[in-house]
């Protein structure tokens, strides 16, 4: 135990050093350096040649956008195993639009694309599920940058660098707790608008709010798909591919069924 020297009224050297370190870390200069640290790393990774950046990935099993089948190709290949729907429910879509949609079942942090969407909590400082996986794969600078964003309200979307992730950027959005179609739609729409504003062409979404936040899977999938379709119809030249990255078998089955309805081609 460290003891105060009564005769000199001085702290032991070890304690003095601790206080000096705390003061230094909390100084404006130190805070500026900390901020510059993540900003420098962010720019470094964004400008890094792909061959070099791949050395930092948490996995060698990366997936690029062109490796994923478009929805029409996926449908043709798998239609015999996909649950069919009533043909009266089908909404015909231009092939140009349907070709912008892909689905995959797997790890969103393995996608080497422009942006992946993080189903974040309001602090933006990491959590469980996909949120925790993204923070772990990106490295500590993601949390440092997120700490400068002053959190995020439900339905909002904010962008950061991707750092050691295969994705260049992470778009963070906070989904509603329980079923709230209006707020969930805002999550998808605001994320797409952030991608558009930053000239990002490929983006992947996890299933927002369907985990511990308790949004029922099928209603959430319907909001996701219809919102993305509406955005693509209105911004056809701004996004090249939207990937629905699914984890559970039940999510995959739901998306396969609903995509038949909303992205069926002639």
Topology:
Blueprint (H helix, E strand, L loop, with lengths): L12 H13 L2 H20 L2 H4 L9 E2 L6 H8 L13 E2 L1 H4 L2 E5 L5 E2 L2 E6 L8 H10 L1 H7 L10 E5 L7 E6 L6 H17 L4 E4 L11 H18 L6 E6 L2 H14 L1 E2 L1
Parallel strand pairs: 1-4, 2-10, 3-9, 5-7, 5-8, 8-9
Antiparallel strand pairs: 6-7
Helix pairs in contact: 2-7, 8-9, 9-10
Quick overview of this protein structure:
The protein has helices at residues 13-25, 28-47, 50-53, 71-78, 95-98, 129-138, 140-146, 181-197, 217-234, 249-262; strands at 63-64, 92-93, 101-105, 111-112, 115-120, 157-161, 169-174, 202-205, 241-246, 264-265. It has 266 residues and is an alpha/beta fold.
Describe what this molecule looks like in 3D:
The protein has 10 helices and 10 strands. The strands form 3 sheets. It has a 6-stranded mixed beta sheet, sandwiched between helices. Helices cover 43% and strands 15% of the residues. It is of the alpha/beta class and 266 residues long. Strand 8 (202-205), helix 9 and strand 9 (241-246) form a beta-alpha-beta unit. The protein is globular.
